[in-house]
């Protein structure tokens, strides 16, 4: 066979591999075990719509900016920010007012009562509007569509914030990690606890928004065959995070939720309610690729135990070898620490016959299985379309 015809056939084979990778997802999904990240994100959006709770009145918290207006009293009309202690100061009032845990209507009534009790305004008409909502931040980082800080103006769950962040990225791992600050017992503000002119002290320091953001139970029993969110006590220092937010006070609890359980089941113990200050992280797991003479060429997302992926497991996910495969001449393409691509020949035939040890695969590895004839020419032709062919079909395992 002439070299020109060999290269032409190699190019045709590479194109056929690319076409197979492009049209494969529909047939792969029919098995119900592999889904694309796009379909996973569609599922996240569907569950997010179902999980949305009915709107409630916003509960004021630390960091919010309030616009306070008292009719016909311009001295008391202004914007004020709620302090870290949950209080605000208004002119003419002898004490700071504790406002965290109150709604706008409740705060309007409280300011009116204080003004009237101190003899400052007769029959005051007070209006309070939350101008900036900053008290309930939930941070979403890692392998998501677009990391962001989400202001939870209503009770939200894990699936909702993942949807707000654009779903998961192509290389997202199989676990979602939530870091939650250990809340210290609130200490009463001496200035805010002084009795006002009405002869009553301010309300309890315990926030009234506890029902709006319930704490997830970390000790709920798991049913057989399921994996509930795992919680563990830890500190930010133990994870090497010297820049932990000050409100964590160095102490936090880690909750771990399996992404497959979260998406594939309707059990609320996985779709846990989030609290203000939570940090939601989706770790990256990486992707391994297989192209050439296999039933399902494409990329496969690794689970979080990345070191467990091997050529045998990858062939199993890819549906096995075609009968035309030259299994003894497979090649692993891997980039070294300098970014240079290296080739390592793998005898899949001996591995399948258990005559040699299985080979471990790592993120971004590409396993190429040539067809019969012209392996080297096919490999060179395929390298030009590896970037397209391996990204055309990416699959996740076990999300349905």
Search tags:
400 residues; alpha+beta; 6-stranded mixed beta sheet; 18 strands; 22% strand; rod-shaped
- The order of strands across the largest sheet is 1-18-14-13-17-15-16
What class, by secondary structure content?
alpha+beta
Report the strand count. 18
Q: Report how far apart the termini are.
A: 48 Å
Mean pLDDT: 74
The total number of structural domains is 3
Largest sheet: 7 strands, mixed
Query: What string, H for helix and E for strand, traces the elements in order?
Result: HEHEEEEHEEEHEEEHEEEHEEHEHHE
Looking at the structure, what is the overall shape? rod-shaped
Number of separate helices = 9
How many whole angstroms does the radius of gyration measure? 29 Å
- Kindly estimate the percentage of residues that lie in beta strands according to DSSP: 15-25%
List the helices and strands and how they pair.
Elements: H1 3-29, E1 34-35, H2 37-51, E2 65-70, E3 78-81, E4 87-88, E5 97-98, H3 104-117, E6 126-132, E7 137-142, E8 148-151, H4 158-164, E9 175-181, E10 230-235, E11 251-258, H5 259-264, E12 279-282, E13 287-292, E14 298-301, H6 311-317, E15 330-335, E16 341-346, H7 348-352, E17 366-369, H8 375-383, H9 386-392, E18 394-397
Helix pairs in contact: 1-8, 1-9, 2-4
């Amino acid at each position: 066979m002439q070299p020109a015809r060999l290269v032409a056939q190699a190019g045709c084979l590479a194109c056929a591999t690319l076409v197979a990778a492009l049209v494969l997802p529909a047939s792969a999904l029919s098995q119900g075990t592999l889904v694309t990240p796009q379909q996973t994100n569609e599922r996240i959006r569907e569950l997010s719509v179902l999980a949305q709770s009915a709107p409630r009145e916003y509960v004021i918290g630390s960091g919010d900016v309030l616009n306070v207006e008292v009719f016909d009293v311009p001295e008391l009309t202004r914007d004020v920010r709620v302090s870290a202690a949950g209080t605000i100061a208004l002119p003419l009032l002898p004490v700071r007012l504790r406002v965290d845990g109150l709604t706008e209507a409740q705060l309007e009534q409280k300011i009116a009562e204080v003004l009237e009790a101190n003899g400052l305004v007769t029959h005051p008409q007070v209006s309070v509007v939350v101008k900036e909502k900053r008290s309930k931040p939930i941070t979403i980082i890692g392998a998501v569509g677009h990391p962001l800080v989400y202001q939870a103006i209503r009770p939200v769950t894990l699936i909702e914030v993942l949807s707000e962040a654009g779903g998961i990225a192509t290389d997202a791992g199989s676990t979602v990690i939530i870091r939650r600050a250990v809340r210290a017992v609130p200490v009463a503000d001496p200035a805010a606890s002084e009795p006002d002119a009405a002869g009553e002290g301010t309300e309890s320091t315990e926030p009234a928004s506890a029902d709006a953001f319930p704490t997830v139970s970390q000790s709920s029993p798991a049913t057989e065959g399921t994996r509930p969110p795992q919680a563990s006590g830890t500190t930010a220092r133990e994870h090497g995070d010297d820049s932990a937010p000050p409100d964590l006070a160095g102490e936090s609890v880690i909750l771990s939720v399996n992404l497959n359980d979260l998406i594939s089941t309707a059990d609320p113990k996985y779709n846990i309610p989030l609290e203000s200050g939570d940090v939601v992280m989706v770790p990256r797991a990486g992707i391994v690729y297989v192209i050439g003479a296999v039933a399902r060429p494409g990329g496969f997302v690794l689970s979080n135990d990345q070191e467990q992926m091997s050529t045998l497991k990858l062939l199993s996910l890819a549906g096995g070898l075609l009968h035309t495969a030259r299994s003894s001449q497979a090649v692993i393409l891997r980039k070294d620490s300098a970014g240079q691509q290296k080739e390592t020949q793998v005898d899949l035939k001996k591995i399948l016959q258990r005559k040699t040890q299985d080979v471990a695969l790592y993120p971004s590895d590409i396993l190429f299985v040539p067809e019969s004839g012209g392996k080297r020419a096919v490999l060179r032709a395929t390298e030009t379309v590896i970037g397209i062919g391996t990204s055309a079909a990416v699959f996740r395992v076990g999300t349905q």
